[in-house]
Amino acid sequence: MANYKAADSKREQFRRYLEKAGVLDTLTKVLVALYEEPEKPNNALDFLKQHMGAAGPETPDVEALRLEVAELKQKYDAVLEENKELKAKLAQYEPPPDEKRTE
């Protein structure tokens, strides 16, 4: 019997924690929005993620930023390659470290 009360106590503590953190209110609001949705979505989990902010905003701005990041990565890789080439050319024209010391 004491084990049952301990489990209830932990469960009540967890419920209070969720309530205090605002989790219960948020879940309730999202579930009510799903309930009131005239046409139920095919994937209820995606609906929950979208309305809770887990999925993130999928706007044209986000897609534009993704394209910009991809372009910048390509430019970065090109600059790294150019840097390697220029260092190799520079190494051809620089005297070896031994010759620098004798001067």
Description of the structure:
This protein has helices at 2-21, 23-36, 44-52, 60-93, 97-102. By secondary structure, it is an all-alpha fold. The longest helix is centred in the C-terminal third of the chain and has 34 residues, at 60-93. The mean pLDDT is 86.
What percent of the residues sit in helical stretches (DSSP H or I)? Answer: over 70%
What gyration radius follows from the Cα positions, in whole Å?
30 Å
- Largest β sheet strand count, sense and barrel closure: none
Percent strand: under 5%
Number of strands: 0
Order of helices and strands: HHHHH
* Stretches with pLDDT under 50, minimum 5 residues: none
Averaged pLDDT: 86
Provide a concise account of the structure shown.
By secondary structure, the protein is mostly helical. It has five helices and no strands.
Secondary structure: elements and pairs:
Elements: H1 2-21, H2 23-36, H3 44-52, H4 60-93, H5 97-102
Output the keywords.
103 residues, single chain, 0% strand, 81% helix, mainly alpha, coiled coil, 2 domains
